Amino acid sequence: MTVLAQAARDVPLPPWWGVGLSLLLVAAAAVVIVRERLGLGRDLVVAVVRAAVQLIAVGALLRVLFERAGLPGSLGWVAGMVLLGGRTAGGRARGLPHAVRTATVALLCAVTATLGLLVGSGVIEDRPQVVVPVGGMIVSASMQGVQIVLTRLRDEVQSARALVEARLALGLPGHRSFAPHVRLALRSALAPAIDQTKIVGLIALPGAMTGLIIAGVPPLDAIRYQIVVMYMWLGAASISGLVAARLTTRELFDEAHRLRPLRSS
Amino acid sequence: MAARALFRLDDVTTTRGHGDDHVHPLSGVTAVVPEGGITVVVGPSGSGKTTLLRLLNRMEEPTGGTVLLDEQPLRSLDVLELRRRVGLLLQVPTPFPGSVLDNLRVGRPGVTEAEAGELLGRVGLPDGFAARDALSLSGGEAQRVCLARALAVGPRVLLLDEPTSALDPDATRAVEGAVRRLVADGLTAVWVCHDQLQARRLADHVIVVHSGEVADQGPADRVFSAPAGERARAFIASAT
Predict the structure, then answer these.
(1) What is the ipTM of this complex?
(2) 3-state class (DSSP) for residue B73
(3) C-alpha–C-alpha distance, residues B25 and B18, integer Å
(4) Residue B65 DSSP SS3
(5) B58 close contact with A: CB closer than 8 A
(6) d(C-alpha A170, C-alpha B155), whole Å
(7) Which residue, A189, A245, B86, B112, could crosslink B157 as a Cys pair with Cβ 3.0–4.6 Å?
(8) Cβ proximity of B1 and B37 under 8 Å
(9) What is the pLDDT of residue B128?
(10) Which chain A residue lies closest to B61 (C-alpha atoms)?
(11) What is the pLDDT of residues A218-258, one digit of tens each?
C-alpha cells in the first residue's frame, strides 16, 4: 500500500474552525424541527453532542491504539465491537432464547472467518490502521444481517407456529420443520447486501472508496479496496446470518423436537 | 369396539409457566383411548382437551404421571417415529406453499403420483387434485389435503384437534365422512370437539374433560345417556 502511505501525508483535512462552522448545518435541522413542531429538539442536541464527544474519544483512543497497542490491541478493539454489536443485534430480538449470545457468536464467526482470510492471505495488511476499520466494517455488515435474521425468525415463530407444528407432527425433526422459515429469514438478511453490491458506486460512492479518494488515492486504485470491501460484506453477512439462524434453530426446539414458547418480553 | 387400550394416561399432570405464575392445564388425569373407532374428547373451552390430545404424540410433555402407547411409556419411544405412527390434524388447515403433491411429499418424499391419487381418494378428493396449488384451496379442501398429508406417512392413529371448527357445514360433513372411512379401514381416531352434536354423531367412545380433570369416560351411548358425576351431567345437559 505504498500509494496509500504516500497519499496519507497530504490529506486535505478541514481545519477545526471549519468543523465548528459545520454546526450551521445542524442549525438547519433545528429550524425544521422547531418550525414543524417535531418535538425532536432535545434528541437533536443529544445526538450532536454525543457524535462529537464519541468521535473525539474514539479518535484519541485509536491514536493510542495505532501508536502503541499493535495487532493484539487492534484485535482487542475488534473484539469489543463484536461484543457491543452482539448486544445491539440480539437486543432487537427480544423473546428469542439467548439472542444476545447467539448474535455475539455469529459476529465472532463472521469476523474470524472474513478478517482471518483477508489478513492471512495478505489481501490486507495486519497494521492496526487497517485491521480496526476493516474489522468495524465486518462487524457492522454482520450486525445488520444478524439483526434481520433474528427478528425475522422470531416473527416466523409467532406467526407460523401452526405450520412448524404441522411439519413436526409429520415426524420431521425440529431443524427440518423450521428450514423454510430459516430460508425466508436468510433471504431477507442477504437481499440488502446483494442489492447494495449491485448498485455500488452508481447511487453513492461507498465509504472506503470515498475515504481513499479524499486521501488522494487515484480512483482506479481506490476501487480495488472497495471491491474487497463489498465482497467481504457479502461473506460476512452470509456467515453471520447462517450461524445466527443455526444457533437460533437449536435453541428453539427441545430434545423432543417441540417448538419452545417464546419468552414474553 | 375392541376393549384393548391403545393409549393409557396414568395420573397425568401438565404444567404451564414457572414459579408463582404456573398453571396445570391437566391435573391427575387417568384415561384410556381404546384401539379402533373414534374416541371423542369433549368439554368446555379451556378445559384441557387439546392438551390431552397433544400429550399423545408428545407435542406436550407431562410433568407428572405417564402416557403409554401399547403399554409402553411414550418417552421410551423414538419421538419422530411416534409422530409418524400418530398423525395430527390441527384446528386450522395448514397447507404448505407449493402443489398438493408437494404437500404430500413433505412427510414422505417418495410419494408417487399414483400414490398421491390414492391418498387423495381416501379423503374424498378427486383424481388430478395433486397438481392444484395448495394455497388456493377452500378451507374444507385444504383440511382434507392436510389429512391426506398425515396419511402419507402411514399412521395407525389420527389425532384431530377440532379440525372442522373453521369449516362450513358442507366441508365439515366432507371431513367427518373422510375420517369415518379411514376408521372403517382400521385407523383409530381421537377427535377433540366442543360441539356436542358433532360428538354424538362421531363418537364410539367419549372422554369428558372438565377443569383439567376427566369428568367421565366410556362408551358413547352410556356417557351421553347416563353421564357419571356432577360435572359430566351438567356439561352433557348443557347441550340438550
Answers:
(1) 0.93
(2) strand
(3) 13
(4) strand
(5) yes
(6) 9
(7) B86
(8) yes
(9) 86
(10) A256
(11) 988 888 888 888 899 999 999 999 999 999 999 999 999 99
Test A170 with B83 for CB contact under 8 angstroms: yes
> Which pTM was predicted?
0.85
Q: Which residues of chain B have pLDDT under 50?
A: 1-2
Length reported for chain A: 265
Strand partners, B89: B160
Which residues of chain A lie closer than 8 angstroms to B87, CB-CB?
A: 169-170
Chain Cα centroid distance, residue B193: 9
Contact: A168, B59; criterion CB under 8 Å: yes
Helix (H, G, I), strand (E, B) or coil at B14: strand
User: Cell numbers of A202, please?
Assistant: 452508481
Q: How far is CA A106 from CA A100, A232, A235, B82, B149, in A?
A: 10, 15, 12, 34, 36
Contact check, Cβ <8 Å, A257/B79 = yes
Residue A33 CA to residue A45 CA, distance in Å, equals: 11
Cα–Cα distance measured from residue B138 to residue A92, given in angstroms and rounded to the nearest whole number: 38
Instruction: Return the number of other C-beta atoms located less than 10 Å from residue A78's C-beta.
Output: 21
The position carrying cell 446470518 is A241
Per residue in A147-163, pLDDT (tens digit) is 999 999 999 999 999 99
The alpha carbon of residue A152 is apart from the nearest alpha carbon of chain B, in Å, by 18
Contacts of B181 (CB under 8 A, 6+ apart): B122, B124
Cα A137 → chain centroid:
6
Grid cell locating A130 = 487497517
Q: Which of A170, A253, A264 to mutate to test the interface with B (most CBs of B within 10 A)?
A: A170
A258 in B contact zone (CB under 8 Å): yes
Quote the cell numbers at residue A246.
Answer: 443455526
Give residue-wise pLDDT tens across range B99-156: 999 999 999 999 999 999 999 999 989 988 999 999 999 999 999 999 999 999 999 9
Residue B33, classified by CB atoms within 10 Å of its CB into exposed (0-12), middle (13-18) or buried (19+), is: buried
- The three cell numbers locating residue A193: 447486501
Give me the pLDDT at residue B147, please. 94
Phi, psi of B27 (to 5 degrees): -140, 115
Cite the DSSP H helix spans in A160-173. Answer: 161-169
Q: Give the strand pairing for B5-16 and B23-34.
A: antiparallel
Determine the residue of chain B that is closest to A162 in CA distance: B94
Residue with cell 374424498: B124
- What count of residues does chain B have? 240
Q: How far apart are CA A140 and CA A134, in angstroms?
A: 10
3-state secondary structure of B41: strand
